[in-house]
Amino acid sequence: MTSTANYAINGRPIGPDHSPYIIAELSGNHNGDLNRALALVDAAADSGADAVKLQTYTADTITIDVDRPEFRINGGTWDGRHLHELYQEASTPWDWHEALFKRAEERGLHCFSSPFDPTAVDFLETLHAPAYKIASFELVDTPLIRRVAALNKPMIMSTGIANLAEIEDACAAARGTAAGFALLHCISAYPAKPEDMRLGTIQMLAQTFGVPIGLSDHTLGSAVAVASIARGACIIEKHITLARADGGPDAGFSLEPDEFKQLVEDCRMAHAALGPAQTNREGVGGSNAQFRRSLYVVADVKAGEILTEEKVRSIRPGNGLAPKHLDDILGKPAARDLERGEPFDWGMITQ
Prior knowledge:
Elements: E1 8-9, E2 12-13, E3 21-25, H1 34-47, E4 51-56, H2 59-62, H3 83-90, H4 97-106, E5 110-115, H5 118-126, E6 132-134, H6 142-149, E7 155-158, H7 164-174, E8 181-186, H8 200-209, E9 213-217, H9 223-230, E10 235-239, H10 257-274, E11 294-297, E12 312-315, H11 326-329
Parallel strand pairs: 3-4, 3-10, 4-5, 6-7, 7-8, 8-9, 9-10
Antiparallel strand pairs: 1-2, 11-12
Helix pairs in contact: 1-4, 1-10, 6-7, 9-10
């Protein structure tokens, strides 16, 4: 087991006791335009996100240009696309990275990336990346995970389509980092359906692996991400785009800037609302007592007169005896003259 107590990125603590750490994923939504990529960093900062994440690869480091059936995508968002062609379009040029890291630092964001091979790791080290993300489909690449872990920087790993044995292998490889690591529950569908998300997996992963758990969310909208906070997610990763209408490889399941800002606010509000169970409830008090029911004298009563439902009732406000005592009072003689509007107390009846 790895403790969640000291896990942090750039000094920002991450875990169940802290406000969720929210990552804006740029992916290929820059559409080949550096200015658009920089605008996405600005949008992430304006949303209140903690970090912006890139993907560092080239078409030739992630695949090869071969015209075979298994190199073409069947079904889903990218149906019919050739892998090399898709990754050529979606990749973030390496010569943009320095500008993106700099813009993120200027805007108070952490900036890090998912490397897809050792050359990407070496390159990201020249930029002093504060953390590393292992993408879902790379979780089985334990040599890559060990290479990153050797840097002793915080790691985040998406579980995607991995089974428990594969996740355990990845965790064993990642435990080489002194800075700790987190896992993200993830359904690798683009977009993913809410009914397939199985958010209970978050708690299972936390119990099994003892590390901070988050959600890499590819559903439409933000409802699933917000719901995951109640299940214990302490990291949320979500794609951001300037406008879905502009298109791009991941635009269809990304949030626009105003939506991303709402996601951040809602996730942090959801976490703030959790808190520990309220086991010592003090009950109503202060001004709220005005709106609670209690027993009141509702008609003048002479001393010695028998109390009836016409004389004592349960009404608002809540300054008298609790309504549960009504049967103990009815049929008893008044101990003194009672005035309409008095809150009832035990001293008003003859015992």
